[in-house]
Amino acid sequence: MALRHLSVKTLFFLGLCQVGRRGFASSPEVREAPKKIAIIGGGIGGTAAGFFLRQEFGPAVKIDVFEAGTVGGRLATENIGGHEYETGGSVIHPLNLHMKHFLDKLSLSPRADVSSKVAIFDGKELTFEESDWFIVNFIRMLWRYGFNSIRMHMWVEGILDKFMRIYQYQQYGYSFSSVEKLLHAMGGDGFLTLFNQTLEEAMLAEGFSQVFLNDVVTPVTRVNYGQSVQISAFAGAVALAGADSGLWAVDGGNKMVCSGLLYHSKAELVPARATTISMKMRPSKTGTVHLEHYNSASNFYEVNYVGESGAAHSMYDIVVVATPLHQGMSDISFSGFSPPIPSHFPGRYHQTVATLVHGLLNVSYLGTTEKPEDFYVSEVLTLENKASEINSLSSLNPVKIPKGYSPSPASQRKVWKIFSSQPLSQQHLQQIFLSWDSVFEKRWLAYPSYSPPNRRTPPFILHDRLYYLNAVEWAASAMEMSAISARNLALLAHHRWYEQTDKINQEDLDTRLRGEL
């Protein structure tokens, strides 16, 4: 990427780290600050929302985070043989500025880098195996696909350059009321087009060959989203960015960001499952009910929940739902709203099964003639055909790299992670492995099933002061997308509370900044 672009992005990052709360948004005194805020969900989106809401509304507001499971949500680890391994979201892009900012604030560190090699498997044999030499890989790709590979990196880089605009908008306190408006602020009509066409359509229109899409692009979308090049082009571009160089993870596990944000925000963890959110009217001192316009603070939200001590409820001025409101993901119901709020929005989440196996790989399953002691491939991607029953096969490194650690060949027992759409049978495991000590299976409804065009995206604003963070996942699902949505909703909640409409849905940032200066 060009140095001039890197310098601008570095400037944005420094701004994110150094500008304080008042630098993002001022708090007018014409209205009393909210007293209580509820966040439903303790994953990266919910804990980031707590962090940013604290930043916007100050130290006095009480923030409760409802999480019935483990803090981290789809960021999770599993202990195998005394070491923790990632079972959920595992990689972060070098240009994910919010995640970098979180590490700085929480005094966390990136995990030590470990060398890796990639191969592509067609269900019978390896069609491509990465060399230790860059020039060899370059010549191979050039021979097979011409300049498609180079052009793909340039295409993704162009999208990332526009994507980076959101950090500047957020640095200056601007927010957006819908996913579409957020995307348009980043990349104009071009991003909305990417959002509503398939990755295959977009890349073919850019002149990429169908063979390149089948052989190179599809394996990347399969490992990152478990889906083909029929996913939306915007989500596909995020997937391709997830195959870029410089990817990193958090030392000790990515879920540590969530627990760190929860602690830093001074939010209270409520270990309970939210069941119902209702709108209530606040009684006056005379016992009557205020009937002012709903935009006033006379109404509030009652969150009903069930924990270890049984059922209970609490009242809040602002509520952020940071868990997917889709079938199989949530059982929250909404009561007393007009128009009614659905418990489940259209669309479904795609199942990805993560199977962690501590065992000895059967390299002949991959159709290679290499000896196990010489086989150092750590990431096997797959083509889309009936012979490929798995989406990927990768050897895992612990979330905390021991001193002196180095990758081991396939002749040694180690932890492998298999992504597949369905659980693996005993017979299938016997094909892939010569033997194993343990098998751990986690079935994730990991990300939406992307089927453009997106005729109706879930809203950010469910009601006056009731927000839906996970709507952003229908553009693309990633840790940074959740963090961006959390920042956007914290700003949106702040501006709507204080009626700062000039900070909502405003584009042409450069022009506006010149006017403000």
TrEMBL record:
GO molecular function: prenylcysteine oxidase activity
Domain Prenylcysteine lyase: 128-506
Organism listed in the record: Cyprinus carpio carpio
Keywords: FAD, Flavoprotein, Glycoprotein, Lysosome, Oxidoreductase, Signal
Segment forming the signal sequence: 1-25
Alphabetical list of PANTHER family matching this protein: FARNESYLCYSTEINE LYASE, PRENYLCYSTEINE OXIDASE 1
Gene3D superfamilies hit by this protein: FAD/NAD(P)-binding domain (3.50.50.60)
Family per similarity comment: Belongs to the prenylcysteine oxidase family.
Pfam family, one: NAD_binding_8
GO cellular component: lysosome
Glycoprotein found in the keyword field: yes
EC number: 1.8.3.5
Protein name: Prenylcysteine oxidase 1
UniProt enzyme class: oxidoreductase
Subcellular locations according to the entry: Lysosome
Catalytic activity, reaction form: an S-polyprenyl-L-cysteine + O2 + H2O = a polyprenal + L-cysteine + H2O2; [(2E,6E,10E)-geranylgeranyl]-L-cysteine + O2 + H2O = (2E,6E,10E)-geranylgeranial + L-cysteine + H2O2; S-(2E,6E)-farnesyl-L-cysteine + O2 + H2O = (2E,6E)-farnesal + L-cysteine + H2O2
Principal cellular location given in the protein's record: other
BP-aspect Gene Ontology terms: prenylated protein catabolic process; prenylcysteine catabolic process
Annotated function: Prenylcysteine oxidase that cleaves the thioether bond of prenyl-L-cysteines, such as farnesylcysteine and geranylgeranylcysteine. Only active against free prenylcysteines and not prenylcysteine residues within prenylated proteins or peptides. Involved in the final step in the degradation of prenylated proteins, by degrading prenylcysteines after the protein has been degraded.
